Amino acid sequence: MTSWTRRFSAGADSFGVSFRLRQQPRSLAEVSHLSIYRYAGLRSGCGCVVLRAPKHRRLQAAEPSAAWDRSESGEEDRVKPCSYAVGGQRVEDLAEGNSGEILEKIRAEKLRRSNRTVEIVIAAVLTVIFGVANRVLYKLALIPLKHYPFFLAQLATFGYVIVYFSILYMRYHAGIVTDEMLSMPKAPYLVAGLLEALGAATGMAATAILSGASTPILSQTFLVWQILLSIIFLGRRYKTNQLFGCFLVSIGVVITVASGSNAGNSLKDAGIFWSILMIISFLFQAADTVLKEIIFLNASRQLKGRTMDLFVVNSFGSAFQSIFVVALLPFLSKLWGIPFSQLPSYLRDGTACFLNYGTLSGCDGAPLLPLLFILVNIGFNISLLHLLKISSAVVSSLASTFSVPIAVYMFTLPLPYIGVASALPKGFVAGAVILVLGLLIYAWTPSGSSNPNNAASHAPIT
């Protein structure tokens, strides 16, 4: 194959060097794929259009000189500095014709990114709101069901399956969910359900031994696990400001929630085994969120650009989780101090208290408060998964974490059924300031740099 050579110059006054392109464009349309940049500071007479070629083309430096070329007719044509001819047409002429289209594409891309940022911000705010309401209503729901927390947990777990599949059925008949989405492999959903069940089981076991003040401290390992797993399985690379921001968020939560509670002594008294078990619980939960992010990324490629409907992921994930929970019921009931032989009568009494029916006392507020909690918890899970879908597992975790100090403050207000309001922890203000500062540092992107998370999020997952 004969080698074809074109030589063009970026202007002797500007660079003092011309370049040689080792591959001929196959058509004039190929020029539209070259990025065109105009530099106002160049002093050449043509305004100097500089082409940045794709990676598979090679540019060779040549001696500073006027560029010459030989046409098909055998005549030598002089090409002016800052000029590059394709066929019988100069690139300057092509640039004038395509500049409007190129600028329009740039504007459209900027608008798309701006809209995506707004969507992520709105989703994060909704996640924080649902997160605060979820924490507050959980405590309110346990007022009538204070003797039946295990019943409430199982009611929520199996209630999700009914609600999610009902919504999935309606979205399928509305044409939002397609047969192709439903035919995706179910193995990732099975693994997600197993991780959720294991996270719940190990978390319950550790919580039964650890004090309440210890859990917020150990829960910060959840964010650490997410970062590590996203680096390993998603190929993400985090900037220094993002890692430092996550560190400040974790420190802020610890100071906000655990200040003045002797949490360090509680961890020491409980023993290292139960602390490690709680950390493993958060590993399971973090792995579940990263796996769901992988499911969305793989589905977007297999569905040819369409995104997986989040209710498909939620429905099948919850279904498999409920199956594993049933298998773990003897172990889980024992953790809650309920002999497995007494589990049927416990669930029967829990149902009567939930419905506020019969002769059981102390069930005031049911079924309104438990139902409100379940509905808000469903909304929280949906908003959290939606935020994970359009951003990343780490961003969704940060939004959820931000709801912690707000919920702590809400409990200082005169809420119904609670009675005496709680006092703010001693380090609440300092911890909240550090947490917000960490979020701002994480979100800050240095000028001139792109977000590596977004780029890596579309890398092939193998």
Task: Describe, in plain words, how this protein is organized in 3D.
This protein is mainly α. The protein has helices at residues 91-141, 149-173, 179-182, 187-207, 214-218, 221-234, 240-258, 263-270, 272-302, 310-327, 329-335, 343-354, 368-390, 393-410, 428-443, 452-456, and strands spanning 6-9, 18-21, 35-38, 49-52, 59-62, 67-70, 76-79, 85-86, 89-90. The protein has a 3-stranded antiparallel beta sheet, with no helix packed on it. It has a two-stranded antiparallel ribbon with strand order 3-4. Helix 4 packs across helix 10 (310-327). The longest helix has 51 residues, at 91-141. Belongs to the CRT-like transporter family. The chain crosses the membrane at residues 117-138, 150-169, 189-211, 217-235, 242-260, 272-291, 311-332, 368-388, 395-415, 427-445. It is found in: Membrane. Pfam families: CRT-like.
Which sheet architecture does the biggest sheet show? 3 strands, antiparallel
The number of distinct β-strands equals: 9
**Which series of helices and strands comes N to C?**
EEEEEEEEEHHHHHHHHHHHHHHHH
**Which class of secondary structure composition applies to the elements?**
mainly alpha
Q: Uncertain spans, ≥5 residues at pLDDT below 50?
A: 1-80, 448-462
Integer-rounded radius of gyration: 30 Å
Helix content: 55-70%
**How many DSSP H or I helices?**
16
Number of domains: 2
* Oligomeric status: single chain
Could you give the distance between the termini? 38 Å
Cα shape: globular
Strand order in the largest sheet? 1-2-5
Subcellular location: Membrane
Family: Belongs to the CRT-like transporter family.
InterPro entries: CRT-like
Membrane topology: Multi-pass membrane protein
